[in-house]
Design brief:
Number of domains of chain A: 1
Oligomer: heterodimer
Low-confidence stretches of chain A: none
Distance between the termini of chain A: 32 Å
Number of strands of chain B: 11
Radius of gyration of chain A: 13 Å
Low-confidence stretches of chain B: none
Strand order of the largest sheet of chain B: 4-3-6-1-2-5
Shape of chain A: globular
Mean pLDDT of chain A: 94
Number of helices of chain A: 4
Strand order of the largest sheet of chain A: 1-2-3-4-5
Largest interface: A-B, 14 and 14 residues
Helix content of chain B: 40-55%
Number of strands of chain A: 5
């Protein structure tokens, strides 16, 4: 899996590419928690090119979201592929995270 | 309660429409229609109604139901889908068997009432060799069947003795049915009804023959050798077996019958055990509570012992319930074992599910699979939440507590495995909080 990080204004975007399973979950956890620990408070996770997510990846997202909320930050997800959205639905994460169709919508949501 | 709710509740439960029930109901309808046609064809003699007519119907229904009951437990893979797996088939058999015996008793009561109405001696019906006209063979068969039926529910007998009683019950019933088909009367006089009854008796007879006589030799048998006996504590052991020839393919959550040809005195006995390994593993593992005559001898088995594995059987496997993506698994005591196989399989499949696992034990020392679950399965691709539930400290687990854990998510299915009372109690609780019956999947750890 590849992770690319971009920052525009105060919004950090993590773009995930490939499969987020137990073998790469640690690397993703390190990246996203590193962003939070370095003071970033508005994070968009762009899943447009994420083909698969396993429970290990979901747990990282849930943990990071909890930590960010505890630090008065906000996290949003965007551009979920249909089968990834289904996984989020099964787990109940669609009510846990704000989910947007596009990156622009996700970034704009932080303005409100 | 709204009108819609009332209508919904008054409709038959979907379980009624399972193939096993459809088969039984269909056979009963055919029996009844052919009997009615036979009566119309032969004419109705005076004094036939009500008791003699009902007596004929009840004995025919009894034969029909017993034939289906024998088919249900035949252990043939081809028939498993009809009854939803052998575990469900056994439960089905437990309903049909007593129903057949009960109808037999009702039949005799109706005959007695018919004779009483006629002013004839009831003793001719109840006491063998009372007179020349007494149907002594039928009377003896009746008493033997009632006695065997009662013994079949005597729980203190050894498993093998109980099984022998069951086998004998089927045989005596079939012999009695065959006798009834041959005897002059409504059945023999109306060819379509007689043909139908012969089909029923032959089907039941073939099922009995395969199950009792031929299964050991011709059943789905896989030779394995024992690779190790792992003592888990709390009278629980794992038998790890390696295939000698081809391995048995199975679904997680199913069970097998084991036979150990070298076990002196019990070399012919077949005993059912849950598989606790994943089908992707080469070795087959069964987990066993050593509480019976047979199982207490298993820890002493030497590595390399030959075992015959018959199977797989059962429908207690989450993959048969693919539409249910949220599953609550509750295993009590040794009832956790089918879930071990399912959880192990979750490590290698991509059937993403939300799973909650509850391992219910009396106290923590009885939780012999707790570390295995924590260390091996929680990193599965499916999202698994696990809770150990020692009743000594947390009290009895309830459906309401589980529903609170799962909330706000809905639409989950519940899989339950454990002793009958535990499973039955939780089923009622889940039904009471609105979980539909078709989303409650159970396996009871009792084959008798």
């Amino acid at each position: 899996m590849e992770i690319t990080v971009a920052k525009i204004a105060d919004v950090v975007t993590l773009r995930l590419l490939g499969k987020l399973d137990a073998t790469v979950a640690d690397a993703f956890e390190e990246e996203i928690l590193g962003q939070i620990d370095s003071g970033e408070r508005l994070i968009v996770v762009d899943l447009a090119r994420l083909d698969y997510i396993a429970s290990a990846g979901l747990r990282v997202l849930a943990f990071a979201n909890k930590r960010l909320n505890g630090a008065n930050g906000r996290m949003a997800l965007c551009s979920l592929q249909e089968h990834v959205r289904e996984v989020f639905d099964v787990v109940g994460f669609l009510s846990l995270f704000p989910v947007y169709d596009s990156h622009e919508d996700a970034a704009r949501s932080f303005l409100t | 309660m709204t009108l819609v709710d009332r209508v919904r509740r008054s409709l038959p439960h979907p379980e009624v429409f399972r193939p096993g029930w459809i088969l039984t109901t269909g056979c009963l309808i055919v029996t009844t229609v052919l009997w009615a046609a036979g009566r119309v064809s032969a004419g109705i003699p005076p004094g036939f109604w009500p008791w003699r007519g009902f007596a004929q119907l009840t004995i025919l229904w009894s034969v029909t139901i017993m034939a289906t009951a024998l088919l249900a437990v035949v252990r043939a893979h081809a028939l498993q889908p009809v009854f939803g797996g052998l575990d469900r088939a056994v439960r089905f058999h437990k309903i049909l068997g007593p129903a057949a015996i009960l109808l037999l008793i009702v039949h005799v009561v109706f005959l007695a009432l018919a004779d009483f109405k006629k002013g004839a001696s009831v003793a001719n019906l109840l006491i063998p060799f009372w007179s020349e006209s007494a149907r002594s063979v039928d009377i003896i068969v009746f008493y033997v069947l009632v006695l065997l039926g009662a013994l079949a529910y005597e729980r203190r007998t050894r498993y093998e003795h109980w099984l022998a009683v069951h086998r004998l019950t089927g045989l005596v019933f079939l012999a009695g049915s065959a006798h009834a088909v041959i005897e002059p009367g409504t059945v023999a006089d109306f060819e379509p009804l007689r043909t139908w009854c012969v089909i029923l008796v032959l089907a039941g007879g073939a099922a009995w023959l395969y199950r009792v006589v031929l299964f050991n030799r011709f059943g789905p048998r896989y030779p394995y050798r024992l690779d190790g006996v792992v003592s888990r504590g709390s009278n629980i052991i794992d038998l790890v077996m390696r295939p000698i020839e081809r391995r048995m393919m199975y679904e997680p959550g199913t069970f097998v019958f084991l036979r150990i040809p070298s076990l002196e005195g019990q070399q012919k006995e077949l005993h059912p055990f849950s598989i606790s390994s994943s089908p992707v593993e080469r070795d087959l593992r069964v987990s066993i509570r050593t509480v019976g005559d047979f199982t207490r001898r298993l820890p002493a088995l030497a590595v390399g012992t030959h075992l015959d594995v018959y199977g797989p059987f059962g429908g207690f496997t989450s993959h048969r319930f693919a539409p249910f993506r949220r599953i609550v698994c509750i295993g009590a005591g040794i009832g956790i074992t089918p879930f071990l196989g399912m959880l192990a399989f979750e490590l290698s499949n991509h059937d993403f599910r939300r799973i909650w696992v509850y391992y219910v034990v009396r106290d923590e020392k009885d939780a012999v699979y707790d570390s295995e679950i924590r260390e091996s399965y929680l990193n599965a691709e499916s999202y698994i939440d696990y809770a150990l539930w020692p009743t000594a400290t947390r009290g009895r687990i309830t459906a309401a507590q589980i529903a609170a854990d799962v909330a706000p998510l809905e639409g989950y299915a519940v899989m339950l495995c454990g002793q009958v009372a535990f499973v039955s109690d939780l089923v009622h609780q889940f039904r009471a909080i609105g979980v539909p019956a078709q989303r409650i999947i159970t396996e009871e750890f009792e084959f008798r």
